[in-house]
From TrEMBL:
Biological classification of the source: Bacteria, Bacillati, Bacillota, Clostridia, Lachnospirales
Gene: atpB
Protein name, as recorded: F0F1 ATP synthase subunit A
Highest taxon of source: Bacteria
Length: 251
């Protein structure tokens, strides 16, 4: 799946035509401690996305340092983004939402920009399972960190044995598998939906390149914009729901 990088630009970009390629390619390799490591198209796409986010963050920070009482232009955009993300997190998580706004807002913006990068010819980083699984793993760690922080061992054991009493742990293995499956389901849902859209658009351009001029824009609007936004929202919504359940009623 990872090949040598003979054509760097065509490997990074999902160019139209019969030579379209959706695979992950190795652009160049290096040796470290006797092992060979590859810099792939996913790494380059991630660097581009991160450069966009860092550039926006620096510009937003400078704009807010010189903020006016009546926002306008770029300041208005920044305040709108912060307000909407803050409202989304607090609306789902309630009082505890203030502690998770930064995390949820960060992964929301990162996943959204990654999904939308397909509009600009990049291979979306979220079409690589090596990107979506670490994101889901971070959420999984945060979920159980808060579970052990806000729930007693007795409450956790009771929950793992439900719906039966804790002294009859017949359902414990099933509930344990369900807990372990959380990062897998989170990551696969995002990965599969983004990758499927990438493959469909690649097939359309490869098979219908001579007539695919304007009308694929409608499909881009669905697979890159609509589906990308929906999958971003679903990932973050499930993360917030799992964390809220882990905190329990103590808050």
């Amino acid at each position: 799946m990872i090949e040598g990088g003979e054509r760097v630009q065509s490997s990074i970009l999902l160019s139209s035509g019969a030579d379209i390629d959706i695979m992950v390619h190795g652009l160049f390799s290096y040796e470290l401690f006797g092992h060979t490591f590859w810099i792939t198209t996913t790494h380059v796409s991630l660097l581009i996305v991160m450069a966009i986010l860092i550039g926006f963050s620096v510009a937003a920070n400078r704009a807010m340092k010189h903020a006016s009482e009546v926002p306008g232009g770029f300041q208005n955009v920044v305040e709108l983004i912060v307000e909407k993300l803050d409202g989304m997190v607090r609306g789902v998580m309630g009082k505890s939402g203030s502690r998770f706004v930064n995390y949820v807002g960060t992964i929301f913006i990162f996943i959204l920009i990654s999904n939308l990068s397909g509009l600009f010819g990049l291979r979306p980083p979220t079409a690589d399972y090596g990107v979506t699984f670490p994101l889901a793993l971070l959420s999984f760690i945060l979920i159980h960190f808060n579970q052990f922080k806000y729930q007693s061992p007795k409450e956790i054991w009771t929950d793992m044995c439900s719906p039966l009493p804790p002294w009859l742990p017949i359902w414990f293995p099933i509930n344990l598998i369900s807990e372990i499956a959380v990062p897998i389901s989170l990551s696969l849902r995002l990965f599969a939906n983004v990758l499927s859209g990438t493959i469909i658009m690649a097939l359309i351009y490869a098979l219908l390149s001579k007539v695919a001029y304007f009308w694929p824009g409608a499909l881009h609007a669905y697979f890159d914009v609509f589906s990308g936004c929906i999958q971003t929202y679903v990932f973050c919504m499930l993360t917030m729901t799992y964390i809220s359940n882990a905190i329990g009623e103590e808050e």
